[in-house]
Design goal:
The longest helix is centred in the middle third of the chain and has 24 residues, at 178-201. Helix 1 (18-28) crosses helix 8 (178-201). The protein has helices at residues 18-28, 69-74, 88-99, 112-115, 120-123, 151-157, 160-163, 178-201, 211-219, 227-230, 263-273, 287-292, 294-305, 310-319, 330-335, 337-341, 386-393, 398-406, 413-417; strands at 9-12, 32-37, 51-53, 56-58, 67-68, 79-82, 103-106, 131-136, 205-210, 246-250, 255-259, 324-326, 345-350, 355-362. Helix content is 37%, strand content 15%. The protein is α/β, with parallel strands linked by helices. The protein folds into two domains: 9-218 and 342-417, Rossmann fold, CATH 3.40.50.10540; 240-250 and 255-326, formyl-coa transferase, domain 3. The chain is elongated and about 85 Å long.
Length: 420
Amino acid sequence: MSKILENITILDLTRFFSGPQATLLLSGMGANVIKIDDPKTGDPSAFSPPFAGPNGVAFHKQTDTDMGLAYLKRARGKKSINLDLKSSEGHAIFLQLVKHADVVVDNFSVGVASRLKVDYANLCPVNPSIIYCSLTGYGSTGPDKNLKAYDLMVQAAVGLMSVTGESGSPPVKTGSPISDAISGAYSAMGILGALFHKQRTGQGQEIDVSMADCLFSMIYDEPFDCYQQLGIPQRQGNRIMRFSPFNVYEAIDGWLAIGAATNRDWAELLGVLGKKELIDDPNMMNVGWRIENNATIDRIISNWTQGETTHSGLEKLNAKNIPCSPVRTMQEAIQWEQLQQRKMISSLVNPLTNATVTASGPGFPIKFSKTPADYDTPSPIPGEHTEALLASLANLSKEELLALIDRGVIGNFQSLVTKP
């Protein structure tokens, strides 16, 4: 079966996580994603630690064929060419590629694409139907648009660190770079919307995505601006201000996450706890009172969970359809049968050895009933498709390609592979 984005060509100028996450999702839906990297440096993640190779994963290269683990995850399903956009010849070749493309994606700092003359203003005359997605830390407008940003700074800037953790604790970020992942997903969604618009109208457009905007839009459903008025601390730990109970509770051999979003859930939970008499207490059946007295509610539940194993506790809670889960370690989550059956754990292949490595990556998270979606090919050898794609899309002869390699305008991928 055909994939949804077959015949859609995307020129990928992105680096690190946010941009590659966007193009990874699009490649999983069948887009022809062409990574374009500088022939002098290549993708910075391709040969950066941690490395994965024949001898396992390590912070130092153990063999000449070790590659960056992040690259093996994020470049799946993509093609790779090396092209110097700063040179006049390289820029001219890029414009030839743009004529055949549907989308260009970058996550340069604000102003870099303009200086390279690869921004929407420069590309639109070449291909008026081009869709250009620019992903930056704080967006292309506003007083802080030029500030350099990584996930840590974005989480700090939009307030997420101030509300994560327990009350009275220092600021703390989430366990993974969530602003990168979210902005990558939002960028992919924006590109899909622009492709739909183009299909209806024939028009391309520019998409301006900010990591800060994306993360803030995700967290601000929570009424943080009302917490002071409600008399509750900004940091709620594992609790949520709309439900009680909603927390993690220690069992004999681990931890259980338990929540009650309705009074029916709470009444069923009281039955499991052996506290059915509390159903007759009007305070206990008032969710507002329970939220204001979370500590009391948590003690009642903890007194029960501390006498249960995670298995026995889950068995009793699930029998009454009470929302619950064990607190799995990441290794336990990777082994979880639910994720395994839904093909969310994907083997990674090192293209230099054409063999799987002792690490895995996430599978494609959206399941379509009519069209497949997956990362069908491993990450490419850096620059692997340079000559073939430039011959077909830029109409360059073998002689022209060899001359461009000699001048350093395009890269012979072997030169990057052998870099220390």
